[in-house]
Every structure is written in structure tokens, then in C-alpha cells.
Specification:
The structure holds 2 protein chains of 2 kinds. Chain A is α+β, with helices and mostly antiparallel strands. Chain A has 2 domains: about 280 residues, Neuraminidase, CATH 2.120.10; about 130 residues, Rossmann fold (3-Layer(aba) Sandwich), CATH 3.40.50.10070. Chain A is about 15% helix and about 40% strand. Chain A has 5 helices and 30 strands. Chain A starts with a helix and ends with a strand. By secondary structure, chain B is an alpha+beta fold. Chain B is built from 7 helices and 12 strands. Chain B is rod-shaped and about 100 Å long. The N terminus of chain B is likely disordered. The chains are: A alpha+beta, B alpha+beta.
Chain lengths: ~450, ~260
């Protein structure tokens, strides 16, 4: 997202003015001298100050109150979580509750103490068995034509509908105000739920609501990976012949076939076109990275080096590169290569690196890294993000216990990960944060592991 | 192969092909020249001897299914099938035998007697019985674990340590003495590090143990490898002695 915005000036400078080019070169040098680099959330742009009014009830009964409270809370949380807004505290908002454009006095919201640049308001009610919701986004600084967005929603009345309407309206607002980046309020997170000795695959909304089981296999299932079109879920599951790749159809609501082979088969990853799956397979003895079609057929081997090769992930932007974890030189390290197995590059210089996730724009790798791993070494396993072009990294978690399995949100602004404060595997819970490491919060209680964020 | 052939002149290849063909057909002619059927005694008797054939379709059925018998005779005056009795000279009949049966057909005629047979196999489901002798052959669970000892590994390593040599030798000797034993080798890791990487590492550990046993003379077909990574912990204390217990290739009877 960031580079397309930066590139045109570079081309401009090269073409027209050598002086400007040198100036730019100087800027780049300064950029290099920095300790850190820019992710989606640390681009330096000041966040938009936005006021989110509670919606005006357009019908009066207890059901409306309950659903409207869910809607207001969800909408507020979605906008607060987006990472691009400076949300006006509710206590600073004007007393009025406008429900329609005719009822709002925009000036009231743009002056202190609210000082909002944008106002979200509307009405919410139940007519018959339907929720009718009108939502507006107004530019508080544009007194003549303040309306930016007007949306009407008409859905069956339920708690879940109220939440989904809020997610959809939030995504519309984020899309308008973020410069075209899609919101993530309608995205899902798939994860492993620890149930006694078994591990099953569960799903939840991006904000941790609506947690529900998908599989009931009564065994250990790991590494859920959702297909780019959100129709199928690949994972690996312990059977009588060891771990095998399994496939669950979210459309059919049941398991579907994936060709079984010998050996241990682990950690599937979808190609961005949804036609291929890369995974670790030891069918030939040593665990190597293999690529097959989405049914497990036409498998071909990509790596051939003694030692564990595991946890592949495609570059979601190009589909032509794979990042993965290899123990070919001892402790596991992070590598990237082309999908034909050529152009291998080692990315980490030591420690114990695992669980890589490739950012949607193709520029960054998020991974778990214990930089001082070893017997007796008091190292901690934390989440890191590395810029691929420069191999520079920043540490996103600190002293919060063991962290693992980072996964990027579809907009590249958030990272979901698993964390256990006391190091006990059973106490793993799923956390989310912005891609610069701020705004950490838990999405689940203990007993949830290996999150995987949907592609959209 | 093909590349080599292309290097020869095409004519040479053709000649070679004809020579080969000639050799094959030549042999065939010789065989037909001594066709034994033509060497039999000529049918001199005025009354021709009867002939008979019987077929069954299908030849094998499950209990309760039926089969169609089809017979043809020539120069016969009476035809009988054992178990069915006198039948037409040519005919078909549907039968449903309760166990495997030989249908024996006798065709009598002026010229003598001809016989034909067809066997219909009936698959009768048999209740599975406990393979009692197999258990005895496999030896006791206790004896197995006494002789086939687990192999332990250093941290983040799947190389056999020197102390594993005696375990391997003992295991190989016991398995050689009990040839009916099949073994599952489970690869395990301590609970540090990441789940996915540990499963791959466990696979390497189990494979290292398997390779050592195969080198010591145990047939690979008797060994099966499963990696459990850190998913099935032997103990859960956070200290080196527990971690060491977990970093192992564990042998168990593959029943």
C-alpha cells in the first residue's frame, strides 16, 4: 500500500530533475539510518479524529435497546480497532442524538471539546421482524455539503445481525477514510481450540465474538489455513498413520477429500490463486516442502536438504515466492525461495525462528523468534516483523511470555498471534495488535492457539 | 534406449525388426505343426461319442446370491447333473448353493459317456477369531520394553548419541529373535519451541531410530514411523530431566 504512493515521485524526480534526485537520495539515506521502518500502521500520517454517536432508536421496545447496544458497541470497537482513527471520547460528545441529516448540527461536533473531523451517526430500530438501520458519515469541517456516506441496512432481527450490520458499516467508513484500504470488520479468524487432550478447529469473528467449533474429529488437529476465497479450510490432523493434511469445506459444512500419502504431512499453506497448497511432507523420509493441487494430487518436491523443512507460506501478492522454516543448519531459521525451489535466501542470522506469515502487500514477514534460544539461555520467544528488502526487523512483543503463530490481517494493519504468559501450552490465548506492536488485546480466553486470519 | 536406437541407421533397425519377427513367427509355425489334437485316434466308431460342456456365471458368489448354470451337449440321449438330477440335453438353470459346490454333469449317449465339471465358489462370511498364536509370537509387552529401549536425543538434534548404540543393538537382537513383531517408532520432542517445527523434528528423530534399526538388520517393512512432535508429552515439568524424557524415539508394538 505504501510503496505505490511513494513510487510516482521517485520516477518524477529521476525524469526531470537531477537535483531533486539527489535530495531524494539524501532522504533515503536518512531513512536507512533509522532503527525502524514503516509498516502500514506507522506511516506517520496523523489519524483522523472521528466522533461516533450512539444511534437514535427509531422504535421503542426492550429488544431494540438490546440490539442497539450491541450495534453501538460493535461499531465503536470496529472503528477504534481500525488503527487509522483518533476516536473522540464519549464523554466529550454533544448531548444531542441525531438520527437523520436534518437533525444534526454539524458545527456542534467540530468545535471543542469534541473537535471531530468526521461524525458517524444514524438511527436504529426494529420494524416487524427486521432491523432497519440508517447510518451516516459526515465531514464536520464541510458545512455546505457535509455528507460523505449514507447507508441503509435491512436485516432479520437478531443479535448477530446487529453485530454484522455494525461490521459492514464500519468497513464502509474505513474504506472511505483510509484511502481505499478494505476494512477487516467482516473478516474471520480460524484457530485451534484446546479441548482436554484433543485439539479441534474453531472459527470466530475478527473481534473475538461468535466463537464456534468447525471440526469434531476427536484427535489433535493443527495449523488451520483458510483458502483465499474462504470456502475451504486446510489443516493437519493426527490419524493412525501420523499427521495428515485434511480439508474441511465451509460451504458443505463437512470434511472433503484430500489425497493421503505416507509420512508426516504438516502445515498446509494456500497459494493466493487458491489452486495449490504447499506443505511439509516426509513421504520421502526427510521432512521437505512439497506443493500439490488443492486435492493433494500432482505433488512435487520443492526443497531437498537434510533436516526439518516446515511451515511454508506463499507471498500473497505475487504467489511466486515461499517463506518457510528450515533446520538445515541446526536451529530453525527463516528462509525465502521461489516456488520452484530456486533463489534460496536465509533471512534470520541465528536464534530459533518459527511460524512465519507473509504480509498482504508482500513487503514484510511476521514470525516468532527466540533470539537467545538454547539450554539454560533465558530467551523469550516474541513476535518480530522483518522488511524483506533490507532484512531489518522490529520486535513487536516484549516480556509478555511466549508468543507464536503471527498471522496478518487482510489489510496488513493488524497481526493476530498466540500468547501464553506463563509459558504453559494449555494457557495459550489469542491476541491481536496493530502491526507496529501497539493496541494489544486478547480475543479469547486460555485454550486457543494457532490463529489464521482470513484473506478478506 | 530410444536415443541409442536413433543413432543406428534406420534401415539397420528395420532389418533387425524383421529378423526378430521372423524368429517369433517361425517358432509359432513349428508349434502348430505338432498340434497334439490332430494326433489323437480317429473317430472310427459308427456311433459318435457325446460331448458336453457346463459353465456357471458368475463363478464366485456371496452366500445367498444365485448363479446361472448353462450346459450344452451333443450326441447325448440323457444328461444328469449331480444334486439336480435329470435335465434337458441343453439348458440353463439358476441355482443358489449354500456352500462351494462342484456341479458334475454326465452326458450318456450311444457312443459312450462324457463328463463336465464346473466349480461354484460361495464366500461364506466367517466371524473373525482372535489370532491367539500371533500374540504368543509377539512376546509380552513387558519383555518388549525390557529389550527394545527408547532412544534419547540432545536438544534440537536428531543425531543418534553414542549411548544409543547399545539400545539399537539390544532392540535389533530382540526383533531378530521375534520375527513376527512389528514396531511403531514414535518421534517426540520437549515442549519448548514451536509445534509445527517440533513435528518435523520428531519425524527426523523417529527416522534416525528407524535407519539405525534397518542398518542393524531389521527389515524396514516391520517398522512404522509416526511423529507426535510435542503433542503427546510424557511429562510436563519445566526442567531438563523432563525435557530429556520427552526428546525421544519411543518403540511400541504395532498390533
Amino acid at each position: 500500500m505504501h510503496s505505490p504512493q511513494r513510487k510516482p515521485p521517485i520516477r518524477h524526480a529521476q525524469r526531470y530533475c537531477l537535483g531533486a534526485f539527489f535530495l531524494l537520495f539524501a532522504c533515503v539515506s536518512v531513512f536507512h539510518a533509522q532503527d525502524t521502518f514503516k509498516t502500514e500502521t506507522s506511516s506517520g500520517v496523523t489519524n483522523i479524529r472521528i466522533a461516533v454517536a450512539d444511534f437514535k432508536p427509531s422504535s421503542s421496545d426492550t429488544q431494540t435497546d438490546g440490539f442497539k447496544r450491541t450495534f453501538d458497541t460493535t461499531l465503536y470497537a470496529d472503528l477504534a480497532n481500525a488503527g487509522i482513527f483518533d476516536i473522540v471520547s464519549k464523554s466529550l460528545l454533544p448531548q444531542s442524538t441525531p438520527g437523520t441529516p436534518a437533525e444534526i448540527n454539524v458545527q456542534q461536533w467540530s468545535v471543542a471539546p469534541a473537535s471531530a473531523a468526521m461524525v458517524v451517526f444514524g438511527s436504529f430500530g426494529i420494524q416487524g421482524s427486521k432491523i432497519v438501520c440508517n447510518g451516516f458519515l459526515f465531514d464536520a469541517k464541510n458545512l455546505q455539503y457535509p455528507q460523505v456516506l449514507a447507508k441503509q441496512y435491512n436485516e432479520d432481527a437478531s443479535e448477530d445481525s446487529a453485530r454484522q450490520i455494525a461490521h459492514r458499516f464500519a468497513d464502509e467508513i474505513i474504506f472511505r477514510l483510509s484511502g481505499g484500504s478494505q476494512g477487516i470488520a467482516e473478516s474471520k479468524i480460524y484457530y485451534v481450540k484446546i479441548t482436554g487432550a484433543d485439539k479441534e478447529i474453531w472459527q470466530m469473528d475478527y473481534d473475538g465474538a461468535n466463537q464456534q467449533p468447525l471440526t469434531h474429529l476427536g484427535t489433535v488437529s493443527l495449523s488451520p489455513r483458510i483458502s483465499p476465497d474462504s470456502t475451504r479450510l486446510a489443516f493437519s490432523s493426527l490419524g493412525k498413520d501420523g499427521f495428515q493434511i485434511r480439508m474441511y469445506s465451509l460451504v458443505l459444512g463437512r470434511m472433503v477429500n484430500f489425497q493421503g500419502v505416507g509420512g508426516t504431512n504438516l502445515s498446509p499453506a494456500w497459494a493466493p490463486n487458491g489452486k495449490e497448497i504447499a506443505y511439509s511432507s516426509s513421504r520421502s523420509g526427510d521432512p521437505e516442502i512439497w506443493i500439490s493441487d488443492a486435492n493433494g494430487a500432482l505433488a512435487r518436491r520443492i526443497t531437498s536438504f537434510r533436516g526439518p523443512d516446515v511451515s511454508p507460506v506463499y507471498n500473497p501478492r505475487t504467489g511466486s515466492q515461499i517463506a518457510w522454516i528450515s533446520g538445515r543448519t541446526g536451529l530453525p531459521q527463516l528462509y525465502i525461495m521461489d516456488t520452484d525451489g530456486s533463489a534460496i535466501q536465509r533471512m534470520t542470522d541465528g536464534g530459533y525462528a518459527t511460524s512465519v506469515s507473509w504480509s498482504p502487500n508482500g513487503q514484510f514477514l511476521a514470525f516468532a523468534w527466540d533470539r537467545k534460544y538454547g539450554p539454560g539461555a533465558p530467551g523469550g520467544q516474541d513476535i518480530y516483523v522483518m522488511e524483506i528488502a533490507t532484512k531489518r526487523w522490529i520486535q513487536l512483543t516484549h516480556d509478555g511470555g511466549r508468543c507464536d503463530f503471527p498471522s496478518w490481517s487482510p489489510d496488513g494493519r493488524h497481526i493476530v498471534y498466540a500468547n501464553t504468559a506463563d509459558g504453559k501450552a494449555g494457557h495459550m490465548k489469542i491476541m491481536t495488535m496493530l502491526a507496529d506492536g501497539t493496541q494489544k488485546r486478547a480475543l479469547t480466553g486460555p485454550g486457543a492457539d494457532m490463529p489464521n486470519w482470513s484473506w478478506k | 534406449m530410444i536415443a541409442v536406437q536413433i543413432k543406428f541407421p534406420r534401415a539397420l533397425v528395420l532389418v533387425a525388426t524383421f529378423v526378430a519377427l521372423g524368429a517369433v513367427t517361425g517358432c509359432h509355425k513349428k508349434a502348430s505343426g505338432v498340434n497334439p489334437s490332430t494326433l489323437g485316434p480317429a473317430p472310427a466308431a459308427p456311433a459318435t461319442a457325446p460331448t458336453a460342456t457346463i459353465t456357471a456365471d458368475p463363478l464366485a458368489i456371496d452366500l445367498g446370491q444365485s448363479v446361472v448354470l448353462n450346459w450344452r451337449s451333443q450326441n447325448a440321449t440323457s444328461v444328469t447333473i449331480d444334486g439336480i438330477g435329470d435335465v434337458n440335453l441343453n439348458g440353463t438353470q439358476t441355482v443358489s448353493p449354500s456352500n462351494s459346490t462342484n456341479f458334475h454333469l454326465t452326458a450318456k449317449g450311444d457312443g459312450g459317456t462324457a463328463e463336465a465339471n464346473v466349480r461354484v465358489t460361495v464366500r461364506v462370511p466367517v466371524a473373525p477369531t482372535a489370532p491367539a498364536p500371533a500374540v504368543a509370537d509377539m512376546g509380552s509387552e513387558a519383555a518388549f520394553h525390557q529389550n527394545v529401549k527408547d532412544i534419547f536425543f540432545d536438544y534440537d538434534s536428531y543425531d543418534l548419541r553414542p549411548d544409543a548404540a547399545s539400545s539399537v543393538a539390544g532392540a535389533a537382537a530382540y526383533l531378530a529373535a521375534h520375527p513376527s513383531i512389528k514396531v511403531v517408532i514414535g518421534g517426540y520432542c520437549d515442549d519448548r519451541g514451536s509445534a509445527e517445527y517440533n513435528l518435523a523434528l520428531g519425524e527426523n528423530r523417529a527416522n534416525a531410530a528407524r535407519t539405525a534399526l534397518v542398518s542393524a538388520g531389521v527389515p524396514a517393512s516391520r517398522l512404522r514411523v509416526i511423529s507426535y512432535g510435542k503433542e503427546k508429552q510424557f511429562c510436563t515439568e519445566e526442567d531438563e530431566s523432563c525435557w530429556q524424557q520427552n526428546r525421544r524415539a519411543q518403540f511400541s508394538l504395532d498390533r
